[in-house]
Design goal:
single chain; mainly alpha
């Protein structure tokens, strides 16, 4: 594996700048799409002026990003092929980052241009799948070996279910509201240019705020995860590990490593394994198609020994030489992923699983972190994207889904369901689509009110949603193959 630390040459500085710019451009375009959904209802009910709405939404996106857990960010990273994640500073790693970002941006811009609120989550995940497929084909592996299928299934289910939940729950909430709150002004078409009563305005602004916060805490994490991959790949000496890890935590890790070694040694034959071989064995096992063998525990024991010996006699991760930090991160990543898979494959007893999973959690804390400046950069990109590109998507959501104008109750119902759905998804680390939840919610409210639906718009929306994954898989695969050739042959990286 090739890591870059210390001073960077011109080529790697350019790669760093270009890669960071692409990741932030993805979040900027994400603001065109997903965050614009959050302001559609308050704009079309005259609750807020457009410029106030987009600035307010951008602010709450920022707050949402800053308070996000990071679970979604690392859930997205887990979709990527293990060998590319652990070698992100190589030619293949650079090609991976550029291809998935460029293909996602192209599709997002295309659907935005036609006013179709497609899912940025679907777009990114499709691009990741394309990279994984092409990577496995280029290495003569099984066609699905480069994809983390369990994680893809988990994410895919959340993305498929969320629009159904949005449609059904919004329809039910709207009907309940209509039965329990008998205020005619809630269900009548807003008068042009006239703000709603203060209490209605407050509800709509509250739901807009909630969706914006939830969107920032969920969708904003995708960009955060990508930015961290870039930084770890190019400047691992600074970002491979969380340098703020306390001396007490390092001492605890060292102790837990020793306890883990006692468990692992009972599954080995006592024959040592070289570091390079251990890396290869664990890399193969943690792939989707990886199968268990007795060598896995021997390799795991070797990597665990590497972690323990590297951390021994150190009070701070910053005391480690820069050229050791990337290697330690790889050892931690492979150890953590292997423990997780061994548990899923039922290769551990209950007592062993309890001890090793606690060790895995402690290990993850040293690598799965997001610096505050990364959160601010992503939040600003999201907010600026919303302020510049909101109008096309807002017009579709506000005017082109239903045959009648969006009412106060319909807007509030859709926003409330979106806020709760996205908030729960963030809690459980699932990347759902704000676009799908809110657009389907507006359709559900229109259907429940028998307002009529514009079938041409819905047909175009469904077509865009259905095509997003296969098109982005194709784009991701093609850009990865071309990018690998470009990076390796023109820039001389391997």
């Amino acid at each position: 594996m090739e890591h870059y630390s210390g001073s960077l040459d011109t080529v790697h500085v350019l790669f760093l700048i270009f890669a960071l710019a692409l990741a932030l451009a993805f979040e900027f375009v994400n603001g065109f799409h997903d965050t614009a959904n959050a302001v559609a209802t308050v704009i079309y009910t005259n609750s807020l002026r457009p410029w106030v709405a987009v600035v307010w939404s951008g602010l709450w996106n920022l707050i949402g990003v800053l308070f996000s857990s990071g679970a979604v960010a690392f859930g997205i990273i887990s979709l990527l092929p293990v060998e590319l994640v652990t070698n992100v500073g190589s030619a293949a790693g650079f090609a991976m980052m550029f291809s998935l970002l460029i293909s996602a941006i192209i599709w997002n811009l295309g659907t935005w241009y036609f006013g179709l609120p497609a899912s940025s989550s679907h777009t990114l995940i499709g691009s990741i799948m394309g990279v994984g497929l092409m990577n496995s084909l280029m290495h003569s592996g099984g066609i699905l070996s480069g994809i983390n299928l369990p994680q893809v299934e988990k994410v895919g289910l959340s993305l498929l279910v969320s629009p159904v939940v949005g449609f059904a729950c919004t329809a039910i909430l709207f009907l309940l509201l209509k039965a329990l709150v008998r205020k005619p002004e809630l269900y009548s078409q807003p008068e042009p240019g006239k703000a709603p009563p203060l209490w209605i305005r407050g509800i709509l602004c509250l739901t807009c705020t909630g969706v914006s916060f939830a969107h920032g805490s969920n969708d904003g994490q995708k960009g955060m995860g990508l930015l961290m991959l870039i930084l770890v790949g190019i400047v691992p000496g600074i970002y491979a590990l969380d340098m703020s890890t306390s001396p007490a935590s390092i001492g605890q890790l060292t102790s837990m490593s020793q306890s883990a070694a006692a468990i692992m040694v009972t599954h080995t034959n006592g024959v040592p394994m070289e570091k390079a071989a251990a890396t290869e064995v664990l890399g193969d096992y943690t792939m989707t198609s990886g199968t268990f063998s007795d060598r896995v525990f021997t390799a795991l024991s070797e990597k665990n020994e590497e972690i323990g010996s590297t951390l021994a006699n150190h009070q701070s991760l910053s005391e480690l030489p820069e050229d050791q930090r990337g290697g330690l991160r790889t050892a931690i990543y492979l150890t953590s992923e292997t423990i997780g898979k061994l548990n899923k494959d039922h290769k551990l007893s209950d007592s062993e699983a309890g001890s090793l999973l606690k060790y895995k959690t402690a290990l993850d804390k040293t690598t799965k972190y997001i610096p505050v400046w990364v959160k601010f950069a992503v939040a600003i990109a999201l907010g600026l994207g919303t302020m510049i590109g909101w109008k096309r998507i807002v017009v579709t959501v506000g005017e082109k889904i239903g045959k009648s104008h969006l009412t106060y109750a319909q807007g509030a119902s859709a926003e409330m369901v979106a806020m709760i759905t996205i908030g729960l998804a963030d809690r459980y680390g699932l990347p759902v689509s704000t676009t799908h939840v809110l657009s389907s919610g507006v359709a559900g409210a229109m259907a429940a009110n028998k307002s009529g639906l514009q079938m041409n718009t819905l047909r175009n929306l469904l077509l865009a949603w259905v095509l997003t994954l296969p098109v982005c898989v194709f784009l991701g695969a093609m850009f990865f193959a071309g990018g690998l050739l470009l990076v390796a042959r023109i820039f001389g990286l391997h």
